Amino acid sequence: MAGYVPGEQPGTDRVVKLNTNENPYRCSPAVDRAVQEALERGLQRYPNPMGEAFRQKASEVLGVPADWMMCGNGSDDLLTIVTRAAVGQGQLLRLPYPSYILYKTLAELQGARSEEVHFNHDWSLPATFGKSANDLRLVFLPNPNSPSGTVAPPEEVLDLAERLPCPLLVDEAYVDFAQRNCLDLVARCEKILVSRTLSKSYALAGLRFGYVVAQPHVIEHLVKVKDSYNCDALSIAAATAAIGDQVWLADNRAKILATRARLAESLGKLGFKVTPSEANFVWVTHPEQPVRPLFERLKQQGILVRYMDYPGWGDGLRISVGADEQIDVCLQRLAAMM
Ligand SMILES: *Cc1c(COP(=O)(O)O)cnc(C)c1O
Predict the structure, then answer these.
(1) pLDDT for position 3
(2) Segments of the chain assigned to CATH 3.90.1150.10
(3) Is the peptide bond before 293 cis (omega within 30 degrees of 0)?
C-alpha cells in the first residue's frame, strides 16, 4: 500500500510556512511553566494511563464528565484507535471527499474497505452520506472540513448520526475557529464521537495531544485498543495547562479570525474564488488561471502553501492563516504573479 504523506516540514525557519495549518504564534506561557515543573518532578515514573489531570481540567472547561473523554498522542492517534476499535477486515468505513486523506489510509491499514462520498459542489453533504450500507462500521466527518474550511451544522450532524447504522466520528480539529460545534450532541446520541486536537488552536502541533469525547460505555471500548501509556507525562502537563488558559485561546482565536478575514478578502480581490472558511486556512481556486504554477512560484520564493489536486473534483490552494507579516508577503508575491 501507499502510506499517508504529511505536508512538507522543511526544517528551517527561513520559509514562510502556510502549508500545514499550524498556529503561527507561541502557545500560552502557562504551558512552558507546566513542562518545567513536570521536569523538575522527574520522569522516572509512568504517567497516569488516562491523562487524568487533563481530563479533570478539560471537564471543568468543557462541562463534560471526565469519564466521557480519552486522551491521545495527537488526534491522529485517536483516529487510529477508533478505526481499530470499530472496523474489521473487509468491513466498510465511509468518508467525505475531498477531505482528510488519512482516514482512507487508516481503513487500508485495517484491511478494511473505504467509500468516499463526494461533497456537493457547495461543500454541503449529499443525503447519500447518511445511507445505510452492508458492513458499514464507521463514518468520519471532519467538521470544519479540510481543505474547504466549511461546516455541517450540528442539527444536520445529529440527523446524519441517527440515520447511520454505525458510529460517526466528528473530527473537530479546527472547531475552535468555527461558530458552532457538536460537543452537545454526544449526550444526545451514543453513535456520535467528537475528536479534538491541541495542535491547531492551542499552537501545540509539536507536542502531540488530542482527546475524544464519547459516552462512557464507548470510551471503555476505545481504552481496550489504546497503548497503556499513549500520552507522556510532559504532554499531559502541557495540555492541562493549555486547556486551562481559555483567555489565551480567546485572544489567539480573535487574531487568527481577523487575519483570516483580511486574507480571504484580499484573495477575492486578486480574482480567486474563495470558499468561506470557519477554520485557520482558506481554500481557493481560480476561474481563469491554473493555480499549480502559482504554488510552484511561491515555493521557489520560500513561501509554502498546500497545493491539492483531487481527481474527479479539481485542484486548488489551501493557505493557512499565518501571522499578519507572513500573509502580507504571500499576498504581495501572489499579486505580482497575477
Ligand atoms: C491536523 C488534523 C488532525 C491531526 O491533528 P493531530 O492532533 O496533530 O494529530 C486531525 N484531523 C484533521 C482534519 C486535521 O487537519
Answers:
(1) 84
(2) 16-26+247-337
(3) no
Q: What single letter denotes the amino acid at residue 128?
A: T
Question: Which of 70, 73, 76 maximizes ligand 1 atoms within 8 Å of its Cβ, making it the mutation to test the pocket?
Answer: 76
- Closest ligand 1 atom number to CA of residue 78: 9
Are 73 and 231 in contact by the 8 Å Cβ rule? The answer is yes
The x, y and z cell numbers of residue 123, run together, are 461543500
In the CATH scheme, what is the code of domain 16-26+247-337?
Answer: 3.90.1150.10
Tell the CATH topology of 29-245: Aspartate Aminotransferase; domain 2 (3.40.640)
Q: What is the pLDDT of residues 44-97, one digit of tens each?
A: 999 999 999 999 999 999 999 999 999 999 999 999 999 999 999 999 999 999
Residue stretches of the chain with pLDDT short of 50: none
Q: Is the CB–ligand 1 distance for residue 173 below 6 Å? A: yes
Per the CB < 8 A criterion, the answer to whether 240 and 207 are in contact is no
- Please indicate, yes or no, whether the overall pTM of this predicted structure exceeds 0.70: yes
Ligand 1 pocket mutation, candidates 100, 141, 177, criterion most atoms within 8 A of CB: 100
Considering only CA atoms, which residue is closest to atom 11 of ligand 1?
A: 173
Three cell numbers, residue 314: 479539481
102 Cβ inside 6 Å of ligand 1: no
Report yes or no: 141 and 94 within 8 Å, Cβ to Cβ. Answer: no
Instruction: For residues 214 and 129, give the distance between their C-alpha atoms in angstroms, rounded to a whole number.
Output: 21
Strands 92-97 and 136-142: parallel
Q: What is the DSSP letter of 3?
A: P
Query: pLDDT at position 300, please?
Result: 95
Atom 2 (ligand 1) nearest CA? 173
pLDDT, residue 10, reads: 77
